[in-house]
Specification:
Length: about 250
């Protein structure tokens, strides 16, 4: 791992250690399956109906994995570079009897064979930790079997431009849609000086296509997939993009 990725992993480890108090709350939330959003369920309905084996790179706290099993996945293999995240996610899944198992690994470099997954599921804050979007896309394509799918649901690349003003949406003067990276704010998770990478929607879509995947659906949403302290910012009220979803397929043959 490069120095920035190593520092980011350390930042995540410190953040996860600081949230041990929330383990019971996260377990209860995972049990409801509510972290898998209605829009995700709709786009994945046909895929999940086939009881897929799912690989979830950058699986984090693992709540989505439990929700995927509840929604029909045969098994979910979560992969994260934080050993603390992997340990805690496995403990929660075991406590809930969910068919999830976890391994420690980086992206790219997931320690699983080519074509391991019927469905590669990722997102919910994943892409901002990828310094090379083309390498990320190639790894997602490698993990999907022929005929398998990649599903990505993440923050819209424009959402980090919006202020949290309550009266009307505004653009932050310190951010650019075409910027390269920025340091995670200390009032957001994981903080600890973590560096986030920026990718435009065009760059993301192009990387997926170059990796040999066929895009079946691309959706944009006004509602963010999370809100800091439930802030009702004007930018979240239907006028601006705050999340997106992409479903792609690896062609057979």
């Amino acid at each position: 791992m490069d120095e920035t990725t190593l520092a980011n992993r350390a930042a995540w480890d410190r953040a996860y250690e600081g949230r041990q108090w929330a383990d019971e709350q996260m377990r209860a939330e995972a049990a409801t399956g509510s972290t898998l959003l209605p829009s995700e369920r709709e786009l994945l309905r046909d895929v999940l109906a086939g009881r897929p084996l799912v690989v979830h790179p950058q699986s984090g706290n693992g709540q989505d994995d439990i929700a995927l099993v509840r929604a029909g996945a045969r098994e979910v293999i979560g992969v994260d570079y934080s050993e603390i995240a992997v340990r805690d996610a496995q403990r929660r899944a075991d406590a809930l009897g969910a068919a999830c198992r976890y391994v420690t690994g980086t992206v790219p470099g997931v320690p699983l064979p080519d074509g391991s997954a019927d469905l590669v599921y990722t997102g919910k804050g994943a892409l901002i930790w990828m310094p090379d979007i083309d390498a990320w896309a190639a790894e997602m394509a490698r993990l999907a079997r022929p005929g398998g799918h990649l599903f990505l649901h993440d923050g819209h690349p424009a959402t980090d431009l919006w202020t949290w003003d309550l009266d009307e949406p505004r653009i932050r003067p310190d951010r650019s849609y075409f910027g390269r990276s920025f340091v995670c704010a200390e009032d957001s998770f994981p903080a600890n000086g973590a560096v986030m990478w920026q990718w435009t929607l065009g760059r993301i879509v192009t990387a997926v296509v170059r990796a040999g995947l066929r895009i079946r659906c691309l959706e944009e949403y006004a509602e963010p997939f999370w809100r800091m302290d439930d802030i009702d910012a004007a930018a979240f009220r239907g006028r601006l993009p705050n999340a997106f979803a992409l479903l792609a397929e690896r062609p057979e043959g």
